[in-house]
Amino acid sequence: MKRDSIVIVGAGANFSAISASDENALRWDKLGYAHLLDLAAKDGRNAFVKETSSVEYWDDMPSAAKIESMAGYLKDFKKIPTQELPTGVAFGINFTTVTINAPLHIQYLLKKLTEEYGVRVIRGKVPAISSAFLGLDTKVVFNCTGNAAKHLEGVKDSKCFPTRGQILLSHAPHVQQNTMRHGKDYETYVIPRPYSNGKVILGGFMQKGVSTADTFGEETESILNRTKEMIPTLDSPDTEILTAFSGLRPSREGGARVSREEISLKGTGRQGTIVHNYGAGGTGFQAGYGMAVEAVNTVTQELQGLIHSSNL
Ligand SMILES: Cc1cc2nc3c(=O)[nH]c(=O)nc-3n(C[C@H](O)[C@H](O)[C@H](O)COP(=O)(O)OP(=O)(O)OC[C@H]3O[C@@H](n4cnc5c(N)ncnc54)[C@H](O)[C@@H]3O)c2cc1C
């Protein structure tokens, strides 16, 4: 399997409170949630996105800002009474989330771009970010290179680091609810994969700075133990473990970078505009839409110019 496809196959994916509590993360989450909920309602089956009931538990109290933000927009948000929480859990909520069949959702987006919007896709590896300015008519380059932003010539962002995760793909059609437990040094989750004939993602790990794409038997055991303890119905002959995956979340100290930069293009005497949009960590599906909208908003004038000239 190609390295870059591993991040996506391994992604659950869902909308969860896994993200940070800073202003950017809260805003991108909110935009992403509204977008995915709307997509689930209008075109969920084609987009492989579905409303799903969800429970989230924290072993340590989340910040007041995080709770206030979630309570403000999550559909059916309800705090779970303390006496109903499992042992060791400090805080818990019920709400309606969105689950995403990550590999098929990506294909849906690609099809939409190419067939509905006429986007031409060119696959290739650029040796430097400036190489993405393919010709004189390339005005704006969006840099969405994920983990590669750490080493890519012209970017070399030392704040970037991978956060490894291992998951199990299972067949467990009896599991219909999304469940997460944010532990002190672990992350346990069960995500029913929508429109997949009963596949369920069992996770996981959040290993900062670990960059191996290997999978490990002891991690598989740990995932099985933790998820079965959290959802006892998983411990049944109806649950079949299909395979293990690992992936590297493209993380960044201080959160994702969504910003515009002007560079001089060597040997041409020209300036180029780069819009950076990388470092989504474990939230590229849930927060990616919000990040993308803000990235595009940094070059509104340039894009209007392009639309105008293509209409001439
Ligand atoms: C185990 C696991 C579980 C996850 N679960 C969830 C979840 O439940 N919800 C959620 O929201 N997110 C989840 N994620 C995170 C999500 O998968 C990422 O945030 C998302 O994939 C990041 O997308 P991206 O496009 O920014 O980066 P990437 O997916 O890493 O894509 C970067 C792209 O840039 C390309 N590239 C890099 N360098 C170059 C170059 N020099 N030239 C050309 N192309 C280049 C790469 O080939 C790649 O295609 C999970 C991730 C993992 C690993």
Question: How many domains, as an integer?
Answer: 1
The small-molecule ligands in this entry are:
flavin-adenine dinucleotide
The pLDDT mean sits at 94
| Radius of gyration of CA atoms, rounded to a whole number | 20 Å
Total strands: 12
Features:
D-Amino Acid Oxidase, Chain A, domain 2; 312 residues; 9-stranded mixed beta sheet; globular
Summed up:
With 312 residues, this protein is an alpha+beta fold. The protein is built from 7 helices and 12 strands.
Tell me what the structure shows.
Pfam families: DAO. Belongs to the DAMOX/DASOX family. One of its GO terms (molecular function) is FAD binding. With 312 residues, the chain is α+β, with helices and mostly antiparallel strands. It has one domain: D-Amino Acid Oxidase, Chain A, domain 2. The chain is built from 7 helices and 12 strands. Strands 1, 2, 3, 5, 6, 7, 8, 9 and 10 form a 9-stranded mixed sheet that branches. A 3-stranded mixed sheet has the order 4-12-11. The chain binds flavin-adenine dinucleotide. The site of flavin-adenine dinucleotide has 30 residues, from helix 1, strand 5, strand 10 and helix 6.
List the helices and strands and how they pair.
Blueprint: H1 3-10, H2 23-47, E1 49-58, H3 64-73, E2 78-79, E3 91-100, H4 102-116, E4 140-143, E5 160-171, E6 178-182, E7 187-192, E8 199-203, E9 207-208, H5 217-230, E10 240-252, E11 257-265, E12 270-278, H6 284-297, H7 300-311
Parallel strand pairs: 1-6, 4-12
Antiparallel strand pairs: 1-3, 2-3, 5-8, 5-9, 5-10, 6-7, 7-8, 11-12
The structure holds flavin-adenine dinucleotide (FAD).
Binding site for D-dopa: 189, 249, 282
InterPro entries: D-amino_acid_oxidase_CS, DAO, FAD-dep_OxRdtase
Cofactor: FAD
